[in-house]
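User: My notes are a mess, but here's the protein and flavin mononucleotide's SMILES. Can you give me a structure?
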Amino acid sequence: MIDSLKHLNWRYAVKKFDATKQLSENKLTILKEAFNLTATSYGLQPIKMLVIKDQDLKNKLVKSSYGQQQVADASHILVLCVETVIDEAYINMYFNLVKKLRNTPETITDPFKNSLIKSFSEKDKASVIKWATNQAYLALGNLLTICAVEEIDACPMEGFIASEYNETLNLKEKGLEAVLVLPVGYRASDDLFATLAKVRKPIEDSIIEL
Ligand SMILES: Cc1cc2nc3c(=O)[nH]c(=O)nc-3n(C[C@H](O)[C@H](O)[C@H](O)COP(=O)(O)O)c2cc1C
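Assistant: No problem, the inputs look usable. Here's the predicted complex:
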C-alpha cells in the first residue's frame, strides 16, 4: 500500500531544480493523464495545460516569473490555462463526447445541456474565467499529489505575469489565459529548501471535529 503521508511529507515547493535531469516520457504521460482526469464542475473541463520543454522558451519565461529561476532549470514547465469562452458550441462539444462515449440518448441529456447553455449565456466573461480558474486550482492540487506519489519534484507558482505568459505563448489566439505555472523535474542536491522543516499549523488548529 502507498504510504500517502510519507509522499506528501517528501514533497516541497522546489526552489532549485537540477537542470541536468529530465523527466522521462512515461512520467510526462502520467502528468498529462492526471491533468486530464481532474474532476471539473459539470465535467466541462474548461482548462488546458501547456507542456514546455524548449529551453529558450523556459529561459524567456524567467523574466515573466519575477526572476524565479525554477522556470529555467526545471525539466518541463506546465502552464495551466483557462478557456476564456464557454459558449453554446463549447457546451455542445462536451455533450457530443458524452453521446459518443456513453451512448446516452439526447432525450436524456438535452434538458441538462440546454440549462447549461442558458446559464453560461447569462454569465459575464469575468465570472466564467473565475469559475474556470477554480477548476485549474483543482488540477494543480491533483498534479501536486501525483507528483509526490511519482517522486517528481514541482513548484506550484502564482508568481508570474499572466499577461506576459499569454503574449509569449500566443494564448489569446488559442482562446486561453494562463492562470498557474508548475515547473516539474528533479530537485538540485543543494536546494536549501529541501532541508527545511515543513511549516504547518498544529493539526488541531486545522481540523474541527464535531
Ligand atoms: C497556489 C500557489 C502558488 C504559489 N506560488 C509560488 C511562487 O510563485 N513561487 C514559489 O517559490 N512558491 C510558490 N508557492 C509555494 C508555497 O509557498 C508553498 O507551497 C508553501 O509555502 C508550503 O510549502 P511546501 O509546498 O514546501 O510544503 C505557491 C504555492 C501555491 C499552492
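The chain has one domain: 4-86+123-187.
User: Great, I'll file this with my notes.
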